[in-house]
Amino acid sequence: MKLKTQLFTAVIATMLSTSALAHPKLTSSIPADGTTVASPKNIEIHFSEDLLAKFSGAKLTMTEMPGMAMQMNMAVKVSPGSDEKTMLLTPTTPLSAGKYRVDWRAVSSDTHPMTGHFMFEVK
Ligand SMILES: [Cu+2]
Fold first, then answer.
1. Is the predicted pLDDT of residue 1 greater than 80, yes or no?
2. Which of 36, 37, 44, 32 minimizes the C-alpha distance to 89?
3. Which of 17, 62, 105, 122 has the fewest CB atoms within 10 Å, measured from its CB?
4. CA–CA separation, 29 vs 1, rounded Å?
5. What is the DSSP letter of 54?
6. For residue 108, with 0-12 CB atoms within 10 Å meaning exposed, 13-18 middle and 19 or more buried, which class applies?
7. What are phi and psi of 10, to 5 degrees?
8. What domains are there in the chain, each with its CATH number?
9. ω before 31 within 30° of 0 (cis)?
């Protein structure tokens, strides 16, 4: 009985550590979270795992223009970046001054979607 319990615990621990390793986490972005930047041509999001591009993506929302709160979806092209851990967002029109939120969804080989968001400001 005791051996069975230990074995079971070991199996669970292995499963947990395997899935934790496989889950893509945001490691950095350009612009970085909370920063103020000149209007960026691209938004680069770096993850800890290779992404399945087909199931991964992001949307860009303008949340404030100077003096006015808003929720405006911005058209972006999402493409793989320089490597499979990177997602590239290219706004179809230049981003004007204001605050923006990026909501990302990242899926890697274990197919569990991870989501998150970060914000930046364009001066
Ligand atoms: Cu998973």
1. no
2. 44
3. 17
4. 49
5. G
6. buried
7. -65, -40
8. 24-122 (2.60.40.1220)
9. yes
43: CA distance to ligand 1 center in Å? 26
Q: For residues 98-118, give the mean pLDDT.
A: 96
Measure 87 CA to ligand 1 centroid, in angstroms: 19
Task: For residue 114, count other CB atoms closer than 10 A to its CB.
Answer: 18
- Per-residue model confidence (pLDDT) at position 15: 55
Amino acid at 99: K
How many residues comprise the chain? 123
DSSP, res 94: P
CA 90–ligand 1 middle distance (angstroms): 28
Question: Residue 22: its pLDDT value, please?
Answer: 76
